[in-house]
Amino acid sequence: MHNHRNQAGPLGRRMIDRDQAALSPSYGREYGLVVDRALGSEVWDVDGRRYIDFMAGVAVMNVGHRHPYVLQQVTEQLEKFWHICLSDFYYPQAIELAEKLQSIAPITDSRIYFGNSGTEAVEAALKLAMYQNGRSKFIGFLGSFHGRTLGSLSFTASKTVQRRRYKEGLSVYHVPYPNPYRPIFNGGNSETIGQAVIDYLENQIFQTLVSPDDIAGILLEPIQGEGGYIIPAPGFIKKLRALCDRHEILLIVDEIQSGAGRTGKWWAVDHEDIQPDILCFAKGVGGGFPIGGIIARSELMNWGPGAHGSTFGGNPIAAMAAQATLEVIEKEDLLKQAEESGTYLMDILIEIQSRHHSIDDVRGRGLMIGIEIVADKVTKKQAPALRNDIIEQAFQRGLLLIPCGASSIRFTPPLNIQRDLLDEGTEIFETALSAAEKKHR
Length: 441
Ligand SMILES: Cc1ncc(COP(=O)(O)O)c(C=O)c1O
Fold this sequence. Notes:
Layout: H1 2-7, H2 10-22, E1 35-39, E2 42-45, E3 50-53, H3 56-59, H4 68-78, H5 92-104, E4 110-115, H6 118-133, E5 137-141, H7 150-153, E6 171-175, H8 190-209, E7 215-220, H9 236-247, E8 250-254, E9 278-281, E10 292-297, H10 316-331, H11 334-355, E11 359-365, E12 368-376, E13 381-382, H12 384-396, E14 399-400, E15 402-404, E16 408-411, H13 419-440
Pyridoxal-5'-phosphate (PLP) binds at residues 117-119, 122, 145-147, 221, 225-226, 254, 256-257, 282.
């Protein structure tokens, strides 16, 4: 925090002091950014400094900050009503949003439940799975992040600090994520890395620790987010779907970070040619307003009144913001733009990689791109201090980046970011990278 204070301007510094005296220190702030306003893919701090936003409020602002159409729809809704409680009454804003989500769902016949956040979406998915099959145990993945409340936290396994001193709420068996760059089980090639995880589940976990008959669901990020922007080994998700079918286990995908067009398709599972049983959404769907929830197969979502609900979930303002956001993604062809800008950004990063010794892997889909910072490309030794310095140097030069995994940086700008900002941002990134490399030589 002391460091953050020094990074900020005079007004920012005063705010950080007041923040420290008033707010919970549990927030793990990245650097001393104190925001005043934002527009499109740019952010200004309280001292008037401008930044290019390559993190989009942690993969939330998919249509950019203050998109005029979202602003207009939200403003109109503010003139009508703000809250009435979807758990007790009906209103068109939530119904229309549910219908829109049904139309873009990767599940043929679906129903929607609304909460307010990612972690609530995961809680709803877990409860629905338990309600459905009467089983109470789950499979999760090492490196995953699913939220911070006690159910979702039982799965979260990206940093021990997030679990320290908390008793697990649910019984979860964690298995390795089939990471092709750093496989825990080295299956030999990228195809067999996925099979090795499936074999571990079938031949070890299900034979020695827990019967598959006791497993309610498997919770998977189709691209691991906080854990390092990792695309699983090819074919893995299809194999996992087959394993779930063999044992009547529900496949729950967490698309909280990877959804809402981020990867160039509505959902990351759209790249995989499978249908999940339950999908968790939040972040980008609300375009910056708090909304999350689940999309589940219709015949699964047959729990009765009172089985689950929420006072604020599906709030009319957030529902209108979400409708407007999804409409903008469609009307402005942002899925295509995410794919094209993703390729453009990835090509620049690969070029930068060729000029620098500390970037090893560059990976991603659409505008969900991660790069791996290493001390040595041969040993792949992780370099978290160097990684953190690159991010700090970028911030000082006017570029917002955030880390993921032990030694990676994520690039998740708004899907409609203009090319000149991508060019300017990547130039700042390379300057920051050179400065940090020099310091760590
Ligand atoms: C994949 C994933 N799941 C769940 C969450 C939790 O979302 P929230 O912070 O809205 O509870 C996040 C947030 O970063 C996430 O990336």
